[in-house]
What does this fold into?
Amino acid sequence: MTPEQLADLAKEAMTHAYVPYSGYKVGAALLCADGSVYQGCNIENASYTPTVCAERTAFFKAVYDGKREFSAIAVCGGKDGQITGFFPPCGVCRQVMSEFCKSDFLVYLVGAGDTLKTFTLEQMLPLRFTSEEFM
It folds into this structure.
């Protein structure tokens, strides 16, 4: 799957977001090592703390289905469903990625006009907790 195809799936996922408070929709498409893809969207809550990001939604859906190896994720977002800039994963999402992904896991940030920025997990979270440190 190309980065562009993964980006298109992230855009589609963005349309499912539940964002009555901020209006910022975010979509993610997670590519598993076996080629399967899991989509996620952000889901807000009035008390904010239980809000969940698109990236974690995608990861948790995949993990629930038994997936444990991942290759890449595409993330996009913007006000009222319009991609307005790059929406990098928050720190909590980066740490979830770190739980399941190696340092060369790819993160595609999808911007306006179909622009893509590519980072590795190592670049996004250079000093992180990993499962190897606790096992």
The CA atoms of residues 15 and 26 lie 8 Å apart. The mean pLDDT is 94. Residues 3-14 form the longest helix (12 residues). The two ends are 33 Å apart (CA to CA).
